[in-house]
Amino acid sequence: MKKYKLKKGILIAIEGIDGAGKTTQAIRLRDHFTQKGFDVNTFKEPTDGEYGQQIRTLSRFGRHLSPKDEFELFLNDRIEDCRMNLGPALTKNKLVLMDRYYFSNIAYQGALDLDMKYIIERNEAVAPIPELVIILDVAAKIGLSRILHSRKEEHNHFEREEYLDKVRKLFRKMEAPYIQIIDATSDEDTVFSKLKNICQSIIAPYSSEDDSQIDLFEAIWQKGNAIHLKN
User: Which residues of 48-75 are buried (b: 16+ CB within 10 A; e: fewer)?
Assistant: First the structure.
């Protein structure tokens, strides 16, 4: 199989509420682009590092911290992730897929009334802005049902319907040229097909493929400015 290279590192984040299908689709995208010959790294946040483990403890046993202190855990986890994982991978011109990124902080801690502009500013001071953010949109009831029935898991302290309704609304308010919101209520294959086509359009202008392969890609996506919020 021919190896294809990127002219620069490409960062794509898959976002959405719990149960939207982020992990499933991130894995499918990784496998797809690996089979195409790209060098792909997939990372998940929270990480398995020191701060990520503290966040997981909160999800299991209770969110006893203030929204700001909870946010600081996520931010420290991300700083470590950028230093150890994202930064090195992007420097090596790899395709980097994120299963959650700082847009989750904007929505999840924003739903606890932490200032969203503050969250954005703190994150964009330490973490690279992605070339693409895909928000998988499902109703809270659907996400929670998937967790309970498909994943056979009990709901944790981040997974409460009223809270996730607020989180979803904040995800849907996010607006930037690099953000795409996709209806994720349909079947897994249909959602993946949409994601694959969007991602290919982002990768195309940076890829060193020959003409026969370039034909596989669709319209070129222009990277926009930093995220802002709808009124």
Answer: ebebbebbeebeeeeeeeebeebbebbb
- CB-CB contact of 157 with 70 (8 Å): no
- DSSP structure class, residue 206: G
DSSP annotation of 133: E
β-bridge mates for residue 95, sequence order: 10, 40
DSSP annotation string for 134-169: EEEE--HHHHHHIIIIIS-----TT--HHHHHHHHH
Topology of domain 10-223, per CATH?
Answer: Rossmann fold (3.40.50)
Structure token digits, residue 40 = 């792909």
Q: What are the domain boundaries of the chain?
A: 10-223
> Regarding beta strands 40-44 and 95-99, do their DSSP bridges make them parallel or antiparallel, or are they unpaired?
parallel
Q: How far is CA 114 from the centre of its chain?
A: 20
Cis peptide leading into residue 46 (ω within 30°): yes
**What is the β-pairing status of strands 174-175 and 179-183?**
unpaired
Q: How many residues are there in the chain? A: 231
Enter the pTM of the model. Answer: 0.86
229, β-bridge pairs? 174
pLDDT of residue 95: 98
What are 50-97's pLDDT values in tens digits? Answer: 999 999 898 777 777 899 999 999 999 999 999 999 999 999 999 999
Which residues of the chain have a pLDDT value below 50?
210-224
Query: Residues of the chain with pLDDT > 90: what percent?
Result: 76
| Helix (H/G/I), strand (E/B), else coil: 160 | coil
Query: Residue 96's beta-bridge partner residues?
Result: 11, 41
State how far the Cα of 44 lies from the Cα of 207, in Å rounded to an integer.
Answer: 24
